[in-house]
């Protein structure tokens, strides 16, 4: 509430409606100086001076609240009544406390606001429909659009870049704050790219002429996305040429298995194994793979520097950037507690650590205490072994799908109530290419869940790839060999043919459960751990009614893997 001094002067000039909310929230006093009214706020580490029409200079006001005001006015102007002023201000303030500049902190909060509120995005889009940008808006859009174009790896003078520039200019002309205009344009571009990729993935391979002059056939490839370089055109074309192309009603022909003790002959496989075994060389990203209580203060600063300098500005919209700032917040909460700031005579008191802050960096370990890099190297070799039977792209896709299923089944833990929930990390692209994005996802999951859990995820991902192929082709042949070769090593020792093949029994139970839900005439399978013709036929029958992903998740839960 306003102080009595402020209320008296405001009543005299009847300026209550003209006082922005960040002044009302902050409070303070109005003083008179040469006939010009001024507002003074209290001490604030992010204090700024702002000129307010009709009121004069606002001194020492809360920077987070100042930055929030344009977004509050914009949301109200759209008629969107769900804007939570205090929550948005708190988000901006947390970002600033984590080391972001006021403008960056505000636009990061705005991007998250739009991502998490489809109704706001819809109303914003409607308000900008038919708007023709002026030359001024087009000029202002250039730097904003430039960052998005770099993020999307779009050709500077291509149709995607031109559309991004047009969208940003249109939103600015419609009165959007810069961060909101960039967030909306980025969201549009990402949706267009996802649609394009899905359409390409759904297309069957084009018939190709026999190679002439020894040149390999040129297959289609997908453009790389921001933050990952999982293979350029030559590597992607090479992968397309090397992958066996099955007929629509046939299973892929398995390549001869390779001795695990031998180095991989395929250069793609060898590069993947080498990358999986290497430590993360970026110190900020490497710090994300440790529990916050084990981080030194320099490692915490590495995370801040990584978030501020290793992305394409705050407009990149990469969820991992926001997650990095959240990890910085967690470090402060772990070391200093999450209680309110204490003051002495209006001055903030320097907080005292509630636990000893580590002085020397600790090694990267799994939750079970094993060496993290040795653990990821072992998983990389398992993917290489799978590539010997499944093919490189199929094996890597199995890893990517497995990581996505694990992360969905094991969300990030709850945070301190002083902070909002974690920013959701996006799924790994299931494109069959092992690059930096997939590599970090592997190491992040291994550091968080342990190597055994990731190995289970790899098994589920490989089975899911087989189930998707069987559903698409209508041909479940090979179910017995595939199921036992994938899950047998998880439940039995190498060469153990005497122990019950429990994965077979669990699969039969899963098929009975799903089949009886969909079909009144379902004939229950005998649960005998033997995957024979009846179980294989039942597998195909269930896939005619049930999505392959849903079947895989049910099977994984039955096995205790999810």
Give your account of this protein's structure.
The protein is 56% helix and 4% strand. The protein has 562 residues and is mostly helical. α3 packs parallel to α5 and α5 crosses α9. The longest helix is centred in the middle third of the chain and has 25 residues. The chain starts with a helix and ends with a helix. The relative contact order is 0.07.
Provide the descriptors you would attach to this structure in a database record.
four-stranded mixed sheet, mainly alpha, 562 residues, disordered N terminus, two-stranded antiparallel sheet, 4% strand, globular
Question: What is the topological layout?
Answer:
Elements: H1 4-13, H2 21-26, E1 29-33, E2 36-40, E3 48-52, E4 56-61, H3 63-78, H4 85-97, H5 102-116, H6 118-128, H7 135-151, H8 159-173, H9 178-202, H10 233-242, H11 267-277, H12 283-287, H13 297-309, H14 319-336, E5 343-344, E6 347-348, H15 372-390, H16 392-409, H17 436-449, H18 451-473, H19 479-491, H20 502-518, H21 533-545, H22 548-559
Parallel strand pairs: 2-4
Antiparallel strand pairs: 1-2, 3-4, 5-6
């Amino acid at each position: 509430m306003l102080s009595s001094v402020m209320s008296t002067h405001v009543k005299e000039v009847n300026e209550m409606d003209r006082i922005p909310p960040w002044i009302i929230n902050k409070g303070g006093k109005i003083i008179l100086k040469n006939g010009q009214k001024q507002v003074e706020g209290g001490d604030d580490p992010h204090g700024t001076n702002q000129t307010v029409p009709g009121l004069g200079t606002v001194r020492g006001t809360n920077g987070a609240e100042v930055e929030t005001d344009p977004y509050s006015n914009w949301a109200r102007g759209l008629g969107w009544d769900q804007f939570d002023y205090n929550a948005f201000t708190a988000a901006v303030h947390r970002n600033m406390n984590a080391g972001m500049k006021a403008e960056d902190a505000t636009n990061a909060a705005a991007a998250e606001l739009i991502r998490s509120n489809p109704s706001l995005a819809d109303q914003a889009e409607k308000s900008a429909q038919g708007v023709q940008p002026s030359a001024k808006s087009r000029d202002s859009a250039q730097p904003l659009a430039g960052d998005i174009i770099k993020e999307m790896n779009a050709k500077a003078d291509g149709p995607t870049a031109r559309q991004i520039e047009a969208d940003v200019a249109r939103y600015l002309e419609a009165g959007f704050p810069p961060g909101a205009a960039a967030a909306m344009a980025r969201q549009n571009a990402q949706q267009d790219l996802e649609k394009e990729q899905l359409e390409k993935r759904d297309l069957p391979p084009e018939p190709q002429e026999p190679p002439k002059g020894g040149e390999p056939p040129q297959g289609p490839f997908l453009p790389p996305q921001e933050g990952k370089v999982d293979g350029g055109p030559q590597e992607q074309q090479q992968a397309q040429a090397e992958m066996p192309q099955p007929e629509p009603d046939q299973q892929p022909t398995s390549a001869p298995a390779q001795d695990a003790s031998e180095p991989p002959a395929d250069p793609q496989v060898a590069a993947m194994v080498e990358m999986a075994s290497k430590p993360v060389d970026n110190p900020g990203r490497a710090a994300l793979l440790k529990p916050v209580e084990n981080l030194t203060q320099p490692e915490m600063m590495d995370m801040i520097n990584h978030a501020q300098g290793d992305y394409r500005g705050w407009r990149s919209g990469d969820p991992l950037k926001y997650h990095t700032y959240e990890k910085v917040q967690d470090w402060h909460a772990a070391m200093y507690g999450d209680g309110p700031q204490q003051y002495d005579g209006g001055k903030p008191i320097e907080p005292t650590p509630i636990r000893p802050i580590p002085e020397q960096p600790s090694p990267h370990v799994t939750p079970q205490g094993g060496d993290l890099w040795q653990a990821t190297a072992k998983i990389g070799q398992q993917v290489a072994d799978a590539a010997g039977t499944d093919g490189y792209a199929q094996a890597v896709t199995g890893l990517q799908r497995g990581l996505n299923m694990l992360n969905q089944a094991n969300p990030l833990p709850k945070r301190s109530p002083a902070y909002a929930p974690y920013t959701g990390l996006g799924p790994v692209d299931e494109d069959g290419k092992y690059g930096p994005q997939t590599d970090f996802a592997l190491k992040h999951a291994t550091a968080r869940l342990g190597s055994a859990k990731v190995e289970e995820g790899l098994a589920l991902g490989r089975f899911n790839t087989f189930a998707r192929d069987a559903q698409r082709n209508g041909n479940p042949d090979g179910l017995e060999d595939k199921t036992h070769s994938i899950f047998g090593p998880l439940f039995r020792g190498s060469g153990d043919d005497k122990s019950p093949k429990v994965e077979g029994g669990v699969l039969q139970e899963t098929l009975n459960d799903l089949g009886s839900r969909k079909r009144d005439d379902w004939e229950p399978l005998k649960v005998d751990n033997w995957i024979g013709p009846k179980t294989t036929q039942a597998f195909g029958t269930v896939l005619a009614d049930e999505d392959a992903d849903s079947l895989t998740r049910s099977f994984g839960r039955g096995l205790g893997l999810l």
